[in-house]
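Is this the right way to post C-alpha cells for a design question? Let me know if I should format differently. Anyway, here goes:
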C-alpha cells in the first residue's frame, strides 16, 4: 500500500517545523549562554578593577600617613 502524497507532504512539513523549532531553541539557548558568560566576565573584570583601585588607594594612604609620621618623629629628634 502506497503512502498518499498529501500524507507524505504533511508529515514532511511537520518534521520540517519540528527541526526549525529545535534549531531556533538551540540558537536561543546558545545566545543566552553567551550573553550570560559575557556578563559574568564583565562583572569579574569590574570587580577586579575596583579591588585593584581600592588596594592602590589604601597603599597610597598608608604610605602618606606613615611618611608624615616618620617626618614628625625625625623632626622631633633632630
Amino acid at each position: 500500500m502506497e503512502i498518499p502524497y498529501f500524507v507524505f507532504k504533511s508529515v514532511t512539513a511537520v518534521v520540517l517545523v519540528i527541526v526549525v523549532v529545535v534549531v531556533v531553541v538551540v540558537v536561543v539557548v546558545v545566545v543566552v549562554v553567551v550573553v550570560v558568560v559575557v556578563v559574568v566576565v564583565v562583572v569579574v573584570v569590574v570587580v577586579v578593577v575596583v579591588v585593584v583601585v581600592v588596594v592602590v588607594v589604601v597603599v597610597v594612604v598608608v604610605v602618606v600617613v606613615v611618611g608624615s609620621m616618620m617626618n614628625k618623629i625625625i623632626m622631633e629628634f633632630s
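Format looks fine. Someone answered above. Worth noting: DSSP finds one helix and no strands in the chain. Residues 49 and 55 are 10 Å apart (CA to CA).
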